[in-house]
Amino acid sequence: MTEETSSESPTLVKTLRPYHVWALGVGIVLVGEYMGWNFTVAKGGILGSLFALLVAGTMYVMVALCASELGAATKLAGGPYDWARLFIGPGAAAIVGLAVYMEYIALEAADSIVVASIAQSIFPEIQVLPVTLLVISILTFINYRGVVAALTLNFALTMTAFIAIIVFFFFNLLGIGSIPWNPAELISGAMPNGIVGIFAALQFGPWFYLGIEGAAMCAEECKHPSRAVPLGQQAGMITLLIAAGMTLYLCAGLIPASVLGVSVYPLYEAATSTGMYFLVVFLAIGTLFTCLASANGCVCDSSRSWFALSRDHFLTPWFSAVHPRYYTPYRAVIFTMPIAIAFAFSGFLDQVITFSITSGMVAYVLIPFALIRFRKMFPQDSSKVRPFIGPMQPWIAYFTIFLAVVILSTLNWGYRYNLIFGLVFYIVAYFYFNWRYKSIESEHDWERDMGWPKPVMHRSE
Amino acid sequence: MANIDNNRYRSKLHQDAGVIVLLLALLYFSELYMIYNIVSIIGASVPIPSILLGLYILFIILLLGIETLGCVGVYRSIKKHMFEFEYYD
User: Fold this and answer.
1) What is the span of the domain harbouring residue B40?
2) Does residue B89 fall inside a structural domain?
3) Using omega within 30 degrees of 0 as the cis cutoff, is the peptide bond preceding A394 cis?
4) Which of A18, A36, A175, A431 fits as disulfide partner to A228, beta carbons 3.0 to 4.6 Å?
């Protein structure tokens, strides 16, 4: 007996393995350890950053478990979009699909700008915007040519960047090269804005892990999704927790908190402060690789979200075509390029990043909600319906929603208008798509689409 | 399922488990080391609010506990379905 996806999608090739899932999830997110997370220090000092790391880490562990269970069950390319479509409704599906798309496309734009900025710092004569365009074009082409090649590349890039953090941490721990890790830096920057700053730091906590749920979006292209998705996603989540803890510890003792809070490349700056040429070069390579891996993974995930929206007629079905030779959703892949370029050329990088976080938080409310609905509709734990069963559900799902709302609300400190704009955008999208989708399709044929029995609420029909 | 090599499957399952156990061990070590050092160094010079200390303890227990339970769940799932879905062929 082989594992099959019952929905008719014979054109996407099923070749991915757990390490590809790991590479997709960690590849997108590891850039957050190299840059971005340190804004938690600007808000709440070292103690605020530690608090954000733990609270956001707990939320993401639970999001990853919800995503593992849903991804292993549905085995569809849309990931969070498909879960919302199947278990909540068309309005929620549309806003999750859009939120995930915007989250990744904005991140791709930000990553590409950083790659171009690094290139400019090495070769000052080049311009940032043309290189940004070049990076986006090359990554789009790689994803157009095939998912295996794209994610194998991501594996190599991500593993190198992760090993760089591990090596840096153990050099410090074992005292190799007399790294000047100074406890006084922790004390001077412990809690600059008091207890309010500690809680305000939560708004940047997601940077440590933002996007790990996207690992499940390659489920439809996995050889054995019920093994690859949970295994790859949990390994990925542990990897990120390890990297986050090590990064905070290293940077907190090597860079003064006032500098760390506004640093563009904190981990690289920490390596520079050691004066060890090997570490400086290794962390510079890690910074470059992790940005490329993140942008590459974002092209993959955002195109799958767009492909899934198109396949279900939320968008024109033209985007749901699969390439006859490379077996990729090539039109959806190519369409990521103009959107990413528009974000990149907008010139508002911090606004783009905040919109990405807001979009992620919207998804983190709806993913556990989809899981709660899924368990109510299909309480049986048969191999066909639910091959992976997460622990302590649905309590974990309820707690995830609570933490996501708490973290989302902390954006009120400093990003009130971004928060309002983001929420209004998704509320309008919810009502629009709820109205539009009702005219296309209102009932699922569970047996035909998923190979599942009817849900509990329809058994009596 | 007649052609499945049981020994090979057990070996592959142990490899999957080994990777996760290794990562979990590194996670426990790095998180506890990092938190202990940061809190003890800062706590010796700056008074840390007791509610904050309580929240640190609560969330580290939740984080490590839930992740560990999740990994046990993944292991059980693979063990239960590996022959049925021919994971290692």
Assistant:
1) 6-81
2) no
3) yes
4) A18
| CB–CB contact A46 B38 (8 Å) | yes
Instruction: Tell me if B1 is assigned to some domain.
Output: no
> What residues of chain B lie within 8 A of the CB of A199, using their CB?
none
Are A391 and B77 inside 8 Å of each other by CB? no
Instruction: In whole angstroms, give the CA distance from residue A240 to residue A242.
Output: 5
Task: Using alpha carbons, select from A408, A232, A307, A324 the residue that is nearest to residue B87.
Answer: A232
| Total tally of structural domains belonging to chain B | 1
Nearest to A47 among B34, B52, B84 (CB): B52
What residues does B25 pair with on adjacent strands? none
Divide the 89 residues of chain B into consecutive groups of 10 and give the mean pLDDT of each group: 78 92 94 95 91 95 96 92 84
Q: Which residue of A has its CA nearest to B1?
A: A1
| B88 falls within a domain | no
What does the block give as tokens for B60? Answer: 């580290």
The interface predicted TM-score of the complex, written ipTM, equals 0.94
Furthest-apart CA atoms within chain A: distance in Å: 73
Residue among A205, A198, A184 nearest A253 (CA): A184
DSSP labels, A367-384 = HHHHHHHHHHH-----TT
| Gap between the Cα atoms of A420 and A442, Å rounded | 31
Judged by CB atoms closer than 8 Å, whether chains meet at B23 and A245 is answered as: no
Question: A226 at the B interface (CB within 8 A)?
Answer: yes
Q: Which CATH superfamily is domain A18-379+413-439 in?
A: Amino acid/polyamine transporter I (1.20.1740.10)
* Integer Rg of chain B from CA: 20
Cβ atoms of A18 and A68 within 8 Å: the answer is: no
A92 has a pLDDT exceeding 60 = yes
pLDDT of A250 higher than 90: yes
Pick from B38, B60, B70: which is nearest to A234 by CB?
A: B70
* CA B45-B46-B48 angle, 5° bins: 135
- pLDDT for the residue numbered A233: 92
Backbone angles phi, psi at A378, to 5 degrees: -130, 75
Q: Is residue B47 part of a domain?
A: yes
- Nearest-angstrom CA–CA distance, B15 and B38: 34
Q: Which member of B20, B49, B63 has the closest CB to residue A235?
A: B20
Q: Are A31 and A289 in contact (CB under 8 A)?
A: no
A126 touches chain B (CB under 8 A): no
- Report how far residue A434's alpha carbon sits from residue A438's, in angstroms, rounded to the nearest whole number: 6
- Domain limits, chain A: 18-379+413-439
Question: Taking all residues of chain B, what is their mean pLDDT, rounded to a whole number?
Answer: 91
